[in-house]
Structure formats: structure tokens, C-alpha cells
């Protein structure tokens, strides 16, 4: 029987063009062959995969877990919810074994606060603690190093009800108590911590556009800025606790993960208009990354925000500023896509979930985004622009120069995968990941201090308000049976991590045309092989060895 790999190889060859820069599934060409270029990474480079508690665990009513804002929001307002998700709560051993078989040595996961403290403060749930103890021990026993996010969006519902969630200053000491518990309970074995995942999403989508839990909307942006202010206060105070009370004994590191797209100004022949677009692109960077990164690496909100938001942007006390500055041992960065940017006096912005907003946060930012006809898009409608990743990394290096380096804590893409057969032949994802990793390598050669990369996601999972319709996994999940099947991208990523290198064709150029051609080729190949007889090699020790060879 013809294997998927040889089918794709055949198709890839027949479609080959001078600009193509991947060997998507060319499993038979050793990485050091003369057919292309091997982009080597530093010997201590960290490769891993990532998930988040609410997106994969399921077992929402199991093991004494309390409700989170995502239970409430998704049950009441979304088409799907995380009640079952991937059933990772019950199947974690199988998942960890699969990581080991694929040779994935690092895993980013998050802790569900309401499993540890069902009402957010007070009583500890022993069953929840036991679950994370078992999971952490299982990871370590299988040679997988955990990186733990304390807060990946699933606030205990009781804290939203009683305090108003991130609107209330009291949430900061409450979060600190929870963080202290986690350091106390798991810090003897967990050496890598993240306080928050993507505060931009927490604050803007949760308290501005209402697209995410708790689904609050705010037209003038004041709640958005207040939520962010309290997230930053909570982050700095929790890091201070770790450093003062635990670091000496436990010897770990702690940081934060921020999301940022690249924003490229729309060129204009009129220098004044070009400058306005450049300023607008800079503002988007400030209103997404700078909003959080400036206080942490520079000690204060970006000057543009302070000028344009007025009183709606809360002010830090001198004490808070001092605690914030330097409060992350490294920069955790999640990156998915790029946009072109124009100045917008209208201040109208269409979010990536299609909600149009005026005024408030968007009015302050006064910038509008658009795609480009040469760009491909993922199933999220997000633009595939690997060179934008390189630009962003160099920009972060220049502005923040984070002493502990940059870790890419998420990068990946959703692909339309209507059937399992189409899903496991995910050439598009391999093309996307190859081009983004190669772009990251270029940024590193140009001076960006990138020290690690985590693919999003280990498993297909609950994509928040979009439910199970978007598949980001490198491992397929059958939502009827919860069976896991590694996709081609998982086998390919296993090879990248085993070789500490990604292989690209000779003469590879990261132009838009090259990206577009490469993605089109991958999509064509995927469509063509969808009907062909197919046998995916099962993941066995032998298969992992062959992939690593
Ligand atoms: C991240 N944007 O969310 C989250 O950390 C993950 O939980 C999620 O599954 C993944 O990315 C894919 O969506 C983002 O609009 C949400 O730029 C929105 C954006 C970026 C990241």
C-alpha cells in the first residue's frame, strides 16, 4: 500500500517550484542530505507542545472541581462547552505516553484554579491536588518537563460573582494566595512557571467585546483597562512571592506569556500618510504587547497609551511600578498571524471573531487592520505571514531585550479537517509550522534571543467560543470516542525536535509568493490524497526511532 508520505512526496515533486521551501513529508530524505538546508538550533533549545486546562481536561463535574467562568459562559452562550473536551482528566496517562513516544520533552499545561480551590479562595480540593500531582509525576516519569501556566482564562465562577473578577483590586491578593498554594504543592517538581496566559484576551475579549468569558462588554474601555491593571498587579505580586519565598529552595523560573501579532504599516507614496500608518502600526503593538510588556520590562504603561486613554487608564503607584519592573524571568510570546495596518480616525475595528467595535479601546488605538491578496489564511481567517514572525521577534528583542530570552509558548494554526482521514494528512499545518520555525531561525541569526518553541496544540481541543469546530492539534481527537491519532505534523514535529533542526529546500525565500505557493501546494496535496488509500504509521517505539534516525 502506498504510504501517505510517498504520496505526498510524489505530489510535492510534481508541484515543485523554485520558491517552495519545505519538504513537508519527505520522510525519506535525511535531514543532512544535499537536497536542502538544515536549520540547526542551539543545543539547549527547548522544544515542546502546549495545551490549557479548560480546553482539554473535561471532567468538569468530576473530582470535586468548582465552576469556572468558562463553564458558565460556554454553557449559556456558546454552541459547545468544555464538559467533556478531550477527556484529558481521565486520559492523561495515555497522553503523556504519547508525548514520550513522539519524543516531546517539554509540555506546557495550565492548572484549573477551581480544581484546586472550587470557590476560588478558602478550602482546598484534595482530589484536584491529587490530579495535578499525578499528572506532574507522570510527566516527569516519562521524561517530559512541565511548564505550568497558573491562569489560562478559567477564573473560578465564585470570584466573578463575589468580586466582579478582574475588575476588583482584591483579585490580586486572591490570585497570590492561589499562586502560593501551587508553588507550595507542586514547586518541588515544577521548575518553570507562567503566571498568566495572554492578558490581552482576558481583558479585551472578557471585559470589552464580551466574546470571551465572563462576556462583559464595555464601550468606553474603562473595564478593559481596569482588568489589565489588576492582572498586572496580580502578576507582579505573585512573582515577588515566588522569588522571595520559593525560588532559593525550589530553583525555578517564572514569567508571563503575552500574545502579539505583527503589524505592518500599509505603504503610501505620500510620506505623511505613510508616517500615519507607521504610527498606527506602532499603536497596535502598544495596545497589544506594550500594554503589558512595557510595565514589566520598562516600568510603566506605553507613553502613547497614557496620552490617549486619559483617566480610563489607571495609574500605578511607585511601589507597584518597582514590583512590576523586571517581574518576568523571560518573555513568553504567543504568535499566530500578521496584518497590514492603516491609521483610522474612525477607530473602527473588526475583531477576528467578526465583532465590530467603535470607541473605547479601539477608538484609543485608532488603527485598522487588513489582509493582503497574496496571503493565505488559516481556518481562523488568520493570515499566514512567516516573515511577520521574524519582524516581531526582532522588534521584541530591540524594545525589551528580555534578560532570560524569549520563549515562543504558542504557535500553530487551525486547518479545516472535516474527517479524520483529512486531518491526519495535515500538509498545510506542516507547511505553516515549517515556515514559522524557519522564520524564527532567521530572527535568531539576526540577533533575537529565542530559547524555546512550543507548538499549539498537542491535541485538537475546545477552541473557546468557536468550540470544537477549529482544529489546532498536531494529534487528532475523535470527539465521539476520544481516540487520539497523531497527525503527519506530529510525526514531522517529532523529527524536528529529535534533530533539533528544521529542513528547508535550497533557495528557500520567505516571500509572500513563496508562502502562498507552499501553502497552496500543501492544500492541493492534502485534497488529492484525501481520497487515496492511506495507512498512517502507528506510533510505536520503532516508529519513533525511525523518525529520530
Ligand atoms: C490563544 N488573537 O488565543 C490561546 O492562548 C489559546 O488558548 C487558543 O486556543 C489559541 O491562541 C488559538 O486561538 C488567542 O485574536 C486568541 O490575536 C486570539 C488571538 C490570539 C490568540
UniProtKB/TrEMBL annotation:
Keywords: Carbohydrate metabolism, Cellulose degradation, Glycosidase, Hydrolase, Polysaccharide degradation. One of its GO terms (biological process) is cellulose catabolic process. SUPFAM superfamilies: (Trans)glycosidases (SSF51445). InterPro entries: GH, GH_1_N_CS, Glyco_hydro_1, Glyco_hydro_1_beta-glucosidase. GO terms for molecular function: beta-glucosidase activity. Substrate binds at residues 55, 152, 197, 336, 456, 463-464. The active site is at residues 198, 410. Coiled coil: none annotated. Its EC number is 3.2.1.21. It holds the Pfam family Glyco_hydro_1. The keyword Oxidoreductase does not apply. It catalyses: Hydrolysis of terminal, non-reducing beta-D-glucosyl residues with release of beta-D-glucose. Belongs to the glycosyl hydrolase 1 family. This is beta-glucosidase.
